Amino acid sequence: IVYNISRISNIIINGKMYVIILVIINVCIFFYKFNPSMSQYP
Q1: What is the tens place of the pLDDT at every residue in 21-33?
Q2: Where are the domains of the chain?
């Protein structure tokens, strides 16, 4: 049971978290490009 939980958690981390990180990066780039006030902060 523990092995299955760790395996599922690894799939979630490697899959969904990777997609979520890409979405967050894309949103940050979007606001960085299209919002001049955000460009003041690195």
Answers
A1: 899 999 988 887 8
A2: 2-36
